[in-house]
Amino acid sequence: MICHDILDRGWRLDIIATTGADSSSFEGAPIHRIPQHIWPSRKRRFIEYNIRAAEIARSLDADIYHAVDLDTLWAANRAAKINNRKLLYESRELYTEQLTLNGRNLVKAGWRILESRLIHNADAVVTINSAIARELSARYSIKEPFVVLNTAAGVSNARPIDFRKECGLDSKYILIYQGILRPGQGILRAIDLIAGLPETGLVIVGDGPLRAEIEKRIDQLKIGDRTRLTGMVPPDNLMSYTMGADAGLLLMEAEALNNRLALPQKLFQYISAGIPPIVTSLPCLREIVEKDGLGLVLDEQPLDSDRQKLSEFLSFGLNGAAQRCASVKDRYSWHNEGHKLIKIYESLIK
User: Fold this and answer.
1) Measured between alpha carbons, how far is 176 from 161 in angstroms, rounded to an integer?
2) Structure confidence by residue, pLDDT tens digits, 264-293
3) Residue 315: DSSP 8-state
4) Which CATH number fits the domain 163-328, given the four candidates 3.40.50.2000, 3.30.160.60, 3.40.50.1260, 1.10.357.10?
5) Is 329 strand, coil or helix?
6) Is the pTM higher than 0.90?
């Protein structure tokens, strides 16, 4: 979304990315794609990508080099240093505390050393919530980073999909999960919850390494008639899927510090679509949801207890929460948050 904002202001934009998509431009802005070999190791791929990205970035001679997450910071820092330009580091998550790094202490230590050395070179540091901002500030003794919420774009002209008609779901309530199907997202728990709520259906939008296990769990619980896996959908169509549900699931598991401090964009996508979010009791999620009564917070009690709480919410609290989501969705829109990032850019090039 920030790419739209940059181009709307008539600024030049170049994007450096890996392969994985066919597009070579974004609304006229060139995308410089760098192929990555699948061998021999992740470390080799990271080093090779950053060396090539730094060379491309240096040749562009931009006014600001914007690194999105730690795995691009070395390249942006290198180009900014050579060209004597400004560096912005956007930490969209607490990268060194990802769930995938649990038990990989040497790898985690390597990422922390890299971040500690480079973050002080940044002319501005941005992150997605106050909790991560405080953690980065305390960890590296830096000024507290700017906070720009990773909110969703407006609904615009999206129209909700009728899941009952399109997917044959004959359920009184339909819940949705959207995102990568991976551990730590609470997807299997969501399926277990739904299994004991016969009036409730579940649509899972996305794909990922957990898909086979999800399909197995659905078969074991014999709820295939009330669940649908759509796979990936085009980004332009995603909001139509979101709007078609009665509530959205975000049952993140506190298995890593990055999870505990997370504030994923899907929370704001649900709010923007006017559907109440159902979340676990992680601090940043709870704060947003409880502040205005936007949805339901599950305290990860025994399954029967959480299932009863969810059932009561769907029966008695759903409509009111949906109305409150509609009333605050403009507050949590990218229209508001994007301006913050643009102002940071402007302050760097004055």
Assistant:
1) 12
2) 999 999 999 999 999 999 999 999 999 999
3) I
4) 3.40.50.2000
5) coil
6) yes
